[in-house]
Amino acid sequence: MEVALTPLEFMRRARRLHGNREAVVDGAERWTYEAFGDRCDRWSSVLHEMGVGPGDRVAYIAPNSHAQLEAFYAVPQMGAVLVPLNFRLIADDFKYLIQHSGAKVVCASADYLDAVDSIRASLPDVTHFVALDGGGVALDRGGDKP
């Protein structure tokens, strides 16, 4: 039987066959395929608890990092759509792209929290803002107005 090796199937296969092997290196952080898959599963669960479901959009403003990589697995495995935004843009560009995409959740790395915070009030359809690194401004508003 021939089955397409999609990114999600690749991760599942790698977890099953090479679970204890190192899969992701991000600076000093290192994860095996099993640990990385667990992180992706937990992030999918958190997004589900935020109300993200199949077809919903999740926007990301982040450089190439483990958090961005996790999104490429965690978001689609729950049937949602990942909207990776070019982190070199300015706040007004982020606002336009987030509105145009219909994103329900916006996730941002620490370097972009100020830009995202400056446009929050003009994004009424976004239900959650998430700071990926834990530093800087706490963005999650849980559906409240800023």
Topology:
Elements: H1 7-18, E1 22-26, E2 29-32, H2 33-49, E3 57-61, H3 66-74, E4 81-85, H4 91-101, E5 103-108, H5 113-119, E6 128-131
Parallel strand pairs: 3-4, 3-5, 5-6
Antiparallel strand pairs: 1-2
Could you give a quick summary of the protein structure above?
The chain has helices at residues 7-18, 33-49, 66-74, 91-101, 113-119; strands spanning 22-26, 29-32, 57-61, 81-85, 103-108, 128-131.
Structure description:
The structure is a single chain. This protein is 38% helix and 20% strand. The chain is of the alpha/beta class and 146 residues long. The chain is built from 5 helices and 6 strands, in the order αββαβαβαβαβ. The protein has one domain (7-131): Rossmann fold, CATH 3.40.50. Helix 2 packs across helix 3 (66-74) and helix 4 (91-101) packs across helix 5. It starts with 6 loop residues before the first helix and ends in a 15-residue tail after the last strand. The strands form 2 sheets. Strands 4-3-5-6 form a 4-stranded parallel sheet, sandwiched between helices. The chain is globular. It has helices at 7-18, 33-49, 66-74, 91-101, 113-119; strands at residues 22-26, 29-32, 57-61, 81-85, 103-108, 128-131.
